[in-house]
Amino acid sequence: MMRPELKALSLFSGIGGFCESFRMAGFKVVGAVENDKYAVQTYAANFPDTPLFTEDICTFLPENDMEVCDQHLEKYASAGDIDVIFGGPPCQGYSQIGPRDVKDPRNFLYKEFCRIVRKIMPDFVVIENVPNMFLMNKGQFKEEIFRELKRSGYGNIGWRKLDASEFGVPQKRNRIFVVASRNGLQCRAAQNLLESAESSLAQPIVSVNEAISDLPAEVASDSGVELEYSAKHEVSNFQKEMRLDFDGDFYSAAHKTDWLRHHASNISLHNHHTKEIQQKRQTLIGMLRPGQKANSLPKSVWDNARPEKWRRFDPDKPAHTLLAQMHRDLSEWIHPHHNRWITVREALRLQSFHDGFVLKTSEWQQLKQVGNAVPPLLGYVPAMSVRLGLTGVRGLPAPFEEIGEPDLFRAMA
Predict the structure, then answer these.
(1) Which among 53, 278, 373, 409 counts the fewest CB atoms within 10 Å?
(2) Residue 40 pLDDT > 90
(3) What burial class does residue 103 get, using C-beta atoms within 10 Å of its C-beta: 0-12 exposed, 13-18 middle, 19+ buried?
(4) Cα–Cα distance between 213 and 411 in angstroms, integer?
(5) Directed axis angle between helix 376-394 and helix 190-200, to 10°?
(6) 97 pLDDT exceeds 80?
(7) Is the pLDDT of residue 391 over 80?
(8) What are the C-alpha distances in Å from 165 to residues 172, 284, 409?
(9) Phi, psi (5° rounding) for residue 133?
(10) What is residue 341's DSSP assignment?
């Protein structure tokens, strides 16, 4: 019997990290919504076959124009035949490093998410955001989001705070994932689905060295320059997953090189460039040993204000959290061995994007894009929880029996 195709709609898509998660989990992303003019260039390059709505999400599936609504449904949502809608409403209003303004209009974009859900009524919805979304203003937004989901017809709700480093991502990064199923759908409790996926997909910790040590010490002179993709005799299992010259368990070599085969002259290394560094700053970071912060420097060099201002990665541990503010200042993200900032490609590796995922636009925008992205291997957990929930509903094989429980990222091979 032919297996039914699983269809997904992506909202607040960014560059497509969460879409990559669902694609790995066996879903076809049939449409995406993103209106950042820089992110859409990267998204379109990496998902050329996915119809992309690039206007304000408030104008998607308009309630006051049924003709346009039907056109949107046909083009971006398979005429409403959707199994799951997923996305991460902008987190800047919730983030601990931001102003944390309760009235920030971005805090209420979950209502647009739920409005679209009510139009389509998929079997599942998945929402991603920063943990502070549930903590802010004594849990106000957690209660409001759950209330809105229930009002929309999704009373089976589960949520987990997940640390990316526990699922093969070489980075400490905590995110909240909410999974909810439509009322009347005969499936397990959403909380149980998430916890099952979480326990089945746990991975050994991946260090910064295991993630980026195979990339060349030299960097491209600017964002448009490609480098030779040099062979390495000794690579970690994680690097095999990321590199273009290996088949991985998540990413096949054919998938990783698909964009390059159509747009590049050869199989080369893209986005391995970084911001320029002044001699004074290069001298300062040269005084930091691996894993050290500014508070380890002599007082004559640094006054102990903001010790996180200067921070070199510990090569033997996962990276600390990558943030969108990297585009302004990379001094918190210093290479563990070389006296320079990390490159865009190294940042992508630390977010678990394979080397064939190419970023577009300026270097400034690329660093912002990668800092905002959902790590694909982290988003894979809630994506697989939905697969698990659809097992009985769609007649699918049990997902963890089908794929096994991969144990991919051990020490150097």
Answers:
(1) 278
(2) yes
(3) exposed
(4) 12
(5) 130
(6) no
(7) yes
(8) 5, 29, 11
(9) -60, -35
(10) B
Nearest Cα neighbor of 363 from 42, 36, 55 is 42
Determine phi and psi for 157, rounding to 5 degrees: -120, 135
Mean pLDDT of 115-126: 97
Structural contact between residues 390 and 123, judged by C-beta atoms closer than 8 angstroms? yes
Kindly give, in sequence order, each residue whose CB lies less than 8 Å from that of residue 297, ignoring residues fewer than 6 positions away: 284, 287, 288, 310
Identify which of 167, 96, 170 has the alpha carbon closest to the alpha carbon of residue 347: 170
What is the per-residue DSSP string for 275-329? ----HHHHHHHTTPPTT-BGGGS-TTT--SS-GGGSBBPPTTSPBPPP-GGGGT-
Please list the residues that pair with 27 across neighbouring strands. 6
| pLDDT tens, residue by residue, 221-236 | 787 788 988 777 789 9
Instruction: For 279, list phi and psi in degrees, rounded to 5.
Output: -60, -40
Domains, the chain, ranges and CATH? 6-204+375-403 (3.40.50.150), 208-372 (3.90.120.10)
The two tokens of residue 69 are 């609504």
pLDDT of residue 138: 67
Place of tokens 């070389």: 338
In this predicted structure, the answer to whether residue 37 has a pLDDT above a threshold of 60 is yes
Express each pLDDT in 195-207 by its tens digit. 999 999 999 999 9
In this prediction, what percent of the chain has a pLDDT beyond 70?
90
CA 125, CA 10: separation in Å to the nearest integer?
10
Closest CA to 130 of 170, 169, 99, 89: 89
Q: Looking at residue 137, what is its pLDDT?
A: 60
Dihedral, CA of residue 179, residue 141, residue 36 and residue 100, to nearest 10: -140
CA angle 376, 121, 115 (to 5 degrees): 85
319: which DSSP letter? Answer: B
Question: What pLDDT, in 10s, does the model give residues 75-95?
Answer: 999 999 999 999 998 755 444
Residue 339, token pair as written in the block: 């006296």
pTM higher than 0.85 for the full model?
Answer: yes
Residue 270 · residue 345 · CB < 8 Å: yes
N- to C-terminal Cα distance for the chain? 40
Spatial separation of the C-alpha atoms in residues 185 and 158, rounded to whole Å: 15
Of the candidates 193, 118, 197, 184, the residue with the CA atom closest to the CA atom of residue 158: 193
Q: Which residues of 364-403 are buried (b: 16+ CB within 10 A; e: fewer)?
A: ebbbbbbbbbbbbbbbbbbbbbbbbbbbeeeebeebbeeb
pLDDT at 102 over 60: no
Residues whose CB is less than 8 angstroms from the CB of residue 130 and which lie 6 or more positions away in sequence, other chains included: 91, 94, 95, 96, 174, 175, 176
